[in-house]
Write the structure tokens for this entry.
Amino acid sequence: MTPFVLLTAHSAAEASTQLAANPGAALLAGGTTLLDLMKLGVAAPPVVIDISRIGHDGITRMDDGWRVGALARNDDVVRHPGVAAGLPMLVQAINLGASGQLRNMATVGGNLLQRTRCPYFRDLHSACNKRRPGSGCDALEGANRGCAVLGTSGRCIAAHPGDMAVALAAIGARVGLHGPDGARVIAFTDFNLEPGATPDRETVMRPGEVILFVDLPALPYGRRSTYRKVRDRASYQFALFSCALALDLDDAGVVVEARVALGGVGTRPWRAWGAEAALCGRQADEAAFRDAAEAAMAGAVPRSQNRFKVELAQRVLVQTWAELMELAA
Amino acid sequence: MNVSLVGQGLRRVDACSKVTGAARYATDRLPAGCAHAALVTATIAKGRIASISTALAWQVPGVLHVMTHEERRPAIHRVELHMELTYGRRTHEDRPPLQGADVHYAGQAVAMVTAETAEAARHAASLVAVTCEAERPVPLPDFTPALPGAVHILKVKGEDTDQTHGDPDGELAAAACVVDATYTTPSEHHAAIELHGKVAEWQDDELLFHEPTQWVAGTGRALAQSLGLADSKVHLVNPFVGGGFGGKAYFRYDSTLCALAARDLGRPVKLVLSREQVFVIGGARPATRQRVALGTDATGRLGAVIHDTWAAASTVDANYQETCGYQTRQLYAAQAIRTTHRIVPFDIGTTCPMRAPGSGPGSFAVESAMDELAHSLDMDPVELRLRNYSETEPGTGRPFSPKHLRDCYAIAAERIGWASRSQQPGSRRDGDWLVGLGMATASYDVLQLKSRALVALLDDGTARVSAAAHDLGTGSYTVFTQVAADGLHLPMDRVRCELGDNRLPVAGAAAGQSQAGSTGAAVAEAARHVMHKLVRLAAGGDPGSPLANLALDRIGFEGGRLFSVAEPSRGEPYEALLGRLGLGHVAEEAEFMPRPARESHSLQNWGAQFAEVAVRASSGEVRVRRVASAFDFGRVLNRATAHGQLAGAIVFGIGMALLEEAEYDQRSARIVNASLGEYLVPVQADVPFIDVAMLDRPDFVASPALGAKGCGEIGNVGIAAAIANAVFNATGVRVRDLPILPEKLLDGLPG
């Protein structure tokens, strides 16, 4: 680990000021991603700002949902009775996302900034445009089983590793930011960037900005939602594929609204707008599910080792929608 | 009558110290003034170091010492020790490090930095600048380009690696039903929770060395030799091992680097490898490619069994042969059997034994092939095995030591509910899950190693067992305590056991499931000698003895007390006798020598593994729902620790079947998943109910003193095949290349 200076912030404003004053500084919340990457040498911030004491760790009821402080632990969300009842897919996503130890440490804000598990990103001696811009991408022709097939570019195919983030994309969460130029709230689906030509830029956050909260809108039909995660081992593994699904049906079984977000296959938490459009207005039956699954994976660009993900995703989507129909709304 | 302690599932004597953290592992040691070392490893897999600069490393505050092949090149004596382990190798990697510019694999040590703190050492190590002239390496897993370099080692474990009985090709050509297929297993890693580490402390010209090892006696001698010292100058201490699985079986030259740095600096040095380094330097079960050809007549009687093995090795030391076909020689009564073995060198780190070496990957191939054969014959897989049951060693006709494999099949089949299995694959469905049953035979040869042990009865009425043996978490402390307490007729809590120190009586390695039977027999023998001596003392010239002048066979002992058989109230506690005679203790050392029975008999452990799996139709995810297994490995010394060994090995096999694979980048020949986050081993959620039956029938042919064989390896044999066969039964998809991943099944699953 490269030596660093540790600063402590006591308020979000102080953190923001410290961040702006120290180029390359990193914020330390739960540390579940940052410390790993620092030990690997992948992250070597000259300054680390401890924000674990700035507050912003509560969950409060709002008119149309809940506001979750950025420093709330993942497990705080899971344990919140209102969230648990209203947004089962979020709770499932968090529970399937990490072990109890990690959920107790990882914060909601930090989790939005989780870094990819692409092996070449985590290895200093490989080419990775995300880690070292311009160095190339060893994953394109390498060990890319875990890599993305949606939203990729010729410079990066690293998959976003999150589970909670996939559910947040489906829910339509909003992210509250605080920075030198003031506060702003953006849709979570606008928060992450596709790699394009600059895979090192992963979010729209500006220099000096700090995440203060995540707003979870109540989803009236949120009870008919689920999070399905596919992986080789039954626990403690990043998703090969995952999906956060919610369905609103009218009495005739026609889809009024659908939410579809995918994990393990996208370069960012992947809201499958096309699949949602394909479902809306259709009778919720297998034919509709198949069409929507195809729409979800339209434009996929698989590589040598992750070709199976397209079929995997479509099969699992169809099956999971069918299972969702069994759930009472 | 005394109830024997041996066999009971007694709680581990070290349980409290383990769960409270009182147990001190080797690298828990932190002597005053200890400096910390870190290795720098090569990032190319083949080529030469063009230049290596340590200037930046030296600028890190606290750096004390740097070694490269140019700077302070370490003076290492090549170890020529003759290993008693018969896997054909002397040291973990047969090439001292830092002696030249050649790079043979990614992860090879090229420098070592020692500093005041571990953090400074690691940071400085990251600043050692190495530039290389790289050549194109030959990576795993494709054997084809590497095959021309295949090496034939003629003998391993005392047996010819190539053996033929009868005319297998002729039998195969004449067979009514044939399975002829290629199976592959990937490079797998031991992934013990405890990292490889060591602490070197010099006291004048003697070295005190703490290191987790499965062979404290041999490792100590090898370390001494590598330093040019007499054996007696190295004191190796190794009280607990946090998992070995074969990865800690051999001496490693990085120990020598650590000791040399400590000598140069005049202060203790600790070196702990990183998790990634353990993956790349720590050894691996070699990847294998195996051809199995089986031919039967129309009734399922085997005419031909052909099992050809190609196993990967490092170009550095292509001397470890994975003996996949050895168990195949024992399994079935075929007319003709051929087994061959070759080593195929790749530009990878050293390969070495891993749990159930040989038989682990070998059984996957041959037991999968048996399942394919049963399917072709439309015959129950158990029936096929019974029809070809080997009553004597196939080919030679040598008798087996007692074999109860039929009972293993029957017990395990009953417990898994085999009768409910459908021969038709894909016929059982549970919602989105396809469910199937599979089975396999397990066999593992009996390895016995020369072992000594000392048993001392003290004048305070307690006893001490001492042996340079090991507890890898296996329960050795407990088992040897039981054996000694039994022999001495003392309660468990009056016997203390000390292991893991090369100054104790020399024992064999904890390898090949040999230790409980080998060292255990020496302990039993030593305890017997102590009691003979004690009885002679009681009956001898001591006028104060209440048993004076009794015939020796008229003196009994029980519960720490000697007494007259004719008049049991007449007697005294052991300590009263010793105290009166002024003897501090009575001690006897005994030696166990492997039985010559090996010459006349084939000595085997046996088992039957049955598994129920569920394969998710929508995703191809495989989950093991139940395992029922039965094992015949002689007398059970401790039911609890034996169960732990067997169930643990089955968990190991679940990993082998479904998860484990070191993946090499095809350009760099580097392992891309060298961490416990990405190299997947089973977690609790992957482990179902495992129903283990132990036959507990002593084998006094293999083990006259104890009747015990071993159970550390056998549980890992056959389980991967049983799972693969269950996957076939569930889905109709045959996976011949481990691990069984969703993408290998997806195309064959119902939509």
Summary: Chain A has a mean pLDDT of 96. The radius of gyration of chain A is 19 Å.
